[in-house]
Amino acid sequence: DIQMTQSPSSVFASVGDRVTITCRASQGIANWVGWYQQKPGRAPKLLIYSASILQIGVPSRFSGSGSGTDFTLTISSLQPEDFATYYCQQANTSPSFGGGTKVEIK
Amino acid sequence: QVQLVESGGALVKPGGSLRLSCAASGFIFSDYYMIWFRQAPGKGLEWVSYISSHGSIVYYADSVKGRFTMSRDNAKNSLFLQMNSLRAEDTAVYYCARGLHGNYGDFWGQGTLVTVSS
To answer: In angstroms, rounded to a whole number, what is the distance separating the alpha carbons of residues A49 and A36?
Structure first.
């Protein structure tokens, strides 16, 4: 099974900050990575798929990059509505998720 | 607009069975893979199962293989998850999602809570 190691597990940031979250796959998965945002009590929302493709309706301050084993989600200028938990997902065989990153107010 | 509504969650004893349903609307259901995910209380996300658009291909996570059965009724725009031999570790909110490029969930339901406890 492919393991996804996500870091950091939490980050404290202010509105306007640039935030970067990383995921490392235990083996190469090309660009089979998605990123989700989840707010408390709500279902996850797909932000990015295939490592770098922005899902329809997602603000352009979100971006994704990477291939092979190392992947990154970047929020270029954090907005109040972006405080949430973020998960990476490998969508190759037997999909799996990273442990999550909680973005909290500094 | 795309809507997915799960139902069927309940409190069940270990070893028991439960059938979850997901009613889909707002898109051509038979064109899409569908996925079940789950999230244990206070924990992260877990992929459970996915099914191809016509139901001929189904894959399961190792944690549920042999106990859960995913199926669909395209005539009724409905998705199902039959869960047998339930364990305490199956306690979670179960989400159905529409598949994008197979295994990404681009639209999710609100979830239904399954609690396995004596």
So the answer is: 9
Residue of B24, B57, B51 lying closest to B36 (CA atoms): B51
Of B45, B100, B111, the CB nearest to A97: B45
Omega into A80 within 30° of 0, i.e. cis? no
| A56-96 pLDDT tens trace | 999 999 999 999 999 999 999 999 999 999 999 999 879 99
Could you tell me how many CB contacts below 8 A there are between chain A and chain B? 55
User: Which residue shows structure tokens 């922005």?
Assistant: A54
Give residue A93's pLDDT. 78
Burial of A90 (0-12, 13-18, 19+ CB in 10 A): buried
What is the C-alpha to C-alpha distance for residues B3 and B23, in angstroms, rounded to an integer? 8
Which residue on chain A is closest to B100 by alpha carbon? Answer: A49
CA distance B101 to B24: 18
Cβ proximity of A58 and A74 under 8 Å: no
Least confident of A3-7, A68-72, B102-106: B102-106
Task: Flag if A43 and B59 touch (Cβ within 8 Å).
Answer: no
Task: Estimate to the nearest angstrom the gap between the alpha carbon of B34 and the chain centroid.
Answer: 8
